[in-house]
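Deliverable D4.2, example record:
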Amino acid sequence: MLHPFSSPVLPAARRPWHPGLVAAPLAVAVALGGSGTLLPLNAQAQQPAPRQELLLVSYAVTKAAYDKIIPRFTADWKKRTGQTVVIRTSYGGSGSQTRAVIDGLAADVVGLALAADTLKLEEAGLIRPGWEKENPNNSIITNSVVAFFVRPGNPKKIRTWNDLDNKNVEVITANPKTSGGARWNFLGLWGSVTETGGNEAKARSFVTNVYRNVDTLPKDAREATDVFVKRNQGDVLLNYENEAILARKSGTWTTPFIVPRTNILIEGPIAVVDRNVDRKGTRKVAEAFARYLYSEPAQRAFAEEGFRPINARVRAETKAQFAPVSKLFTAKSFGGWDTINKRFFGKGGLWDSIFSKSR
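Output generated by the structure prediction step:
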């Protein structure tokens, strides 16, 4: 397994397998043109492939990055193959987007907020097992960490996770049932205890106390930012570091934000939706788009929008724009996403228990 910050090596794309498929006979040297004339096969091959459309389904805060990446990919693909590709997009809370794809939203490619949601598509039979190995870095294309937005002057003196356990501090975070970012926030809170020597009883007590300070649970990370920044609610917002960087860049938020030194490594995956691309005949382009997201131009676009790049060269170029973190833990620290889904966020799991006690 590659480290989240290692340089990727691109594997060969996976192709659908058809039972009973046999080798094609050798091609003849000529083919019929539209008027019945004989054309050399190389002339026939030069005809551009028909125009294709892809649907990318992703989580809300990736939109600004994909707005830059998609035109670059389609121009590059057109130059290399002659084919016109149109990539339509759908953005929203990762949990909501996952359910929409399961319910029939015909995504060719999904860039969800966490592997847990991609695993749900696998469980639904939309994505074949082994999708993590189809692309470099276990199919992770971006990293981030949890950041705290605070009010000007930081009047509540919020600097660490522990400062959130204060009944006088109103916390804003999205809903873990609908938002991937909110699940990362939850794991950040939990791990701030268990990954620094505390036991699970202490973690449960701490996380329950923090959620007692949460009045509303927006549906996704972008809405959570709007609640804090535009509606002026809350004393502190837990959100992606990239959201904080983007808010500062756009001028919608000018107060410095805080990145706790102990933090969770947020990993954003990419996957091709096997059932849909095989049905629509878009596998080749969909796989090419997924691989393009590891390229330096795409990784620079992600970095420009506040995501920590996984490409080594781009990471070195952009190191200064990200806050230092001394201790990182990952989803594997909690047993991986299969375990996390069941234990923390499944029906009757820890989130349900903590939510009922924090209301």
